[in-house]
Design goal:
18 strands, TATA-Binding Protein, six-stranded antiparallel beta sheet, 409 residues, globular, alpha+beta, twelve-stranded mixed beta sheet
């Protein structure tokens, strides 16, 4: 294996790829950790055939190679394995997701609800893309399959287990072309995950080339991204970058606490040839129940908002925004909840039993100069909710959250 220069980048070096603001430096580590919890990423190849001997490349050159990659046609088989250390959500996530059981109008095929299942466990997917207007994602289950197909102005989702179909026009999804196979704002490829990680690369971050690998039968360089600061729950992000195209093939996020990767995602098979047009065609199967997005919207409009929803909307008017404490990977967002209320007291009846049980499983009571509150912990993103209605959240340890709350103005 050829020796690769491990050139460490600075804020100026990576600044040629992505712009930064203080808020962005906070959001990216959290987005990489949490998002990636509900999103479509791709796990590593099942078997590698050895490290390839590739020409030397610096970290800066590899970052630029990722930014310059413009492959919009591909197909392949992928896997995603997510272990955030969160207790099983069961049916809870679907109940509160759009189109879930907690909504006035439901469809088990609605993408926002179904894709929440990727928040934990290991899943096998098939993907295909042909430019910004045609993509297909299929989640393979035991004897069942869930697919989301974006073809021009139409977005179709089909759940074979329930034989339900969800249909929306592009303008109804609220997103831009090419972003319809996942909830708005969720990265849908290893490339997008890698770019978000690189957006955090300033002088608090080490970015180096750490050897080579072979992923899905393709030669790749390995880009290693690590926080320089202590106190972050993120230990490292490793991205395998296709040596030929610059496309990230594998994304692995490891927690600072050690153990298995929190997110291990990568292609097991990939082809950059133009997929067959039939990959993006869809006709509802005979007997399937079809739900139209515009009909759901019209039905919700007729019912009107409930008193509780009106109260919630009114409370949002008091929202005072986000204050960022610290910088880089140790940045913590301070959020003042509308109305200044903390968590409902146990047994108050203000929270569903499932939700209360879930929060109790994560909660850890803490005190400090700020007063008292509860820290909700995962392997990556932690949050402190104070008894007086403030929330501190970040990809940092419990002690770092308490310190941030103590020093908040």
């Amino acid at each position: 294996m050829a020796s690769n220069d491990s050139a460490e980048t600075t804020g100026e070096a990576t600044g040629t790829v992505v712009g930064r603001r203080k808020a962005a430096r906070y959001m990216v580590p959290v987005a990489v950790a949490g998002v990636a919890a509900v999103t479509i990423g791709l796990v590593p190849a099942l078997a590698d055939s050895g490290d390839p001997d590739l020409p030397k490349i610096t970290a800066q050159e590899l970052v630029e190679k990722i930014a310059a990659s413009d492959e919009e046609q591909l197909s392949g088989t992928v896997k995603i394995s997510t272990d955030l250390g969160i207790p099983s959500l069961g049916g809870l996530a679907g109940s509160f997701a759009p189109g879930g059981q907690g909504s006035d109008s439901t469809s088990s095929a609605a993408p926002d609800a179904k894709l929440m299942e990727l928040a934990s466990g290991t899943h096998t997917l098939r993907v295909a893309a042909d430019g910004p207007d045609r993509q297909r994602l299929s989640i393979l289950g035991e004897g069942s399959e869930y697919s989301v197909v974006h073809n021009g102005d139409d977005v179709w989702a089909y759940d074979s287990e329930s034989n339900e179909v969800y249909h929306a026009r592009s303008e109804e999804t609220g997103g831009k072309a090419g972003k319809h196979t996942a909830p708005k704002g969720v990265p849908t490829t290893p490339k997008e995950l890698a770019e978000e990680a690189l957006a955090a690369a300033d002088d608090t971050t080490s970015v180096t080339v750490d050897g080579t690998a072979q992923v899905a039968g393709r030669d790749a360089y390995q880009l290693l991204i690590k926080p320089k600061q202590s106190g972050s729950t993120i230990g490292s992000v490793r991205v395998a970058v296709d040596a030929s195209t610059g496309v990230p093939l594998k994304f692995t996020l490891s927690p600072s606490s050690g153990g298995k990767a929190a997110i291990d995602a990568g292609f097991t098979k990939v082809d950059f040839a133009k997929p067959d047009a039939s990959s993006f065609s869809f006709t509802p199967p005979k007997g399937a129940e079809v739900t139209e997005a515009d009909e759901l919207k019209a039905e919700a409009g007729k019912k009107g908002a409930t008193d509780k929803a009106q109260q919630d909307l009114g409370a949002l008017e008091d929202f005072k925004g986000v204050n960022v404490i610290g910088e880089g990977w140790n940045a913590v967002a301070e959020i003042e909840l509308p109305g200044g209320a903390g968590l409902p007291a146990d047994g108050s009846g203000d929270m569903p039993a499932q939700a209360q049980q879930f929060l109790d499983a994560l909660g850890d009571k803490v005190t400090g100069d700020f007063g008292s509150g509860t820290v909700f912990r995962t392997r990556l993103v932690n949050a402190l909710m104070t008894d007086d209605g403030k929330v501190y959240v970040g990809a940092v340890t419990k002690d770092a959250l308490v310190k941030a709350a103590d020093t908040a103005e």
